[in-house]
């Protein structure tokens, strides 16, 4: 960043750091101990919808990479589109395989980035639930390199449990780099696995 940038108040954007995703398994231990939420085994990578041969080739490569893991049932990565026009590459594991799920999400993000789709990447999430059926996602913002909790309310049309989200912000602060700007805690309505 140069002197002119400093004088004009410009800031350098935060570079994505996908390795921060590897903190999710330790955060899951804290989350279970403090709030009773456990992994569901579902995770997804969200990006602006991309079409074309280059994307199809990258999708096949990710499928082949993750298909090499014989510890999985079903397809390695499933492509879905939500009602808002975004695409999701969804991975499913058994609930006790959160580290493997994080590896899947990291591989999908890395493949999209390496193949030139980094600008389309929006977020990744890992889903959790508690004994009473409440759902939660820990969302990783690709362009910010930060996490935030998203807790949709059951049976409510696009309403979220902000009190729980703020409680979890305090609980997870030592395990994850939490997004401090609450305005960036975007709802991920229709996210697969939630």
From TrEMBL:
InterPro entries in UniProt: PspAB-like
Domain of life: Bacteria
The protein's name: Uncharacterized protein
Species whose genome carries this gene: Streptomyces musisoli
Lineage: Bacteria, Bacillati, Actinomycetota, Actinomycetes, Kitasatosporales
């Amino acid at each position: 960043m140069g002197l002119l940038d400093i004088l004009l108040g410009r800031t350098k954007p935060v570079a994505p750091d996908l390795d921060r995703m590897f903190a999710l398994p330790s955060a899951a231990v804290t989350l279970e101990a403090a709030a009773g939420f456990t992994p569901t085994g579902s995770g997804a990578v969200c990006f602006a919808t991309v079409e074309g041969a280059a994307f199809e080739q990258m999708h096949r490569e990710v499928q082949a990479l993750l298909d090499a893991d014989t510890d999985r049932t079903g397809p390695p990565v499933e492509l879905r589109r939500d009602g808002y026009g975004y695409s999701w590459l969804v991975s499913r594991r058994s609930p006790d395989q959160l580290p493997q799920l994080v590896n899947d999400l990291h591989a999908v993000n890395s493949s999209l980035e390496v193949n030139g789709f980094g600008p389309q990447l929006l977020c990744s999430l890992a889903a959790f639930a508690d004994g009473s059926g409440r759902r939660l996602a820990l969302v990783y913002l690709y362009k910010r390199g930060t996490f935030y909790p998203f807790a949709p309310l059951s049976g409510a049309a696009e309403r979220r449990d902000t009190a729980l989200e703020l409680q979890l912000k305090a609980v997870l602060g030592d395990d994850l780099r939490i997004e401090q700007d609450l305005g960036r805690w975007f709802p991920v309505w229709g996210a697969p696995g939630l």
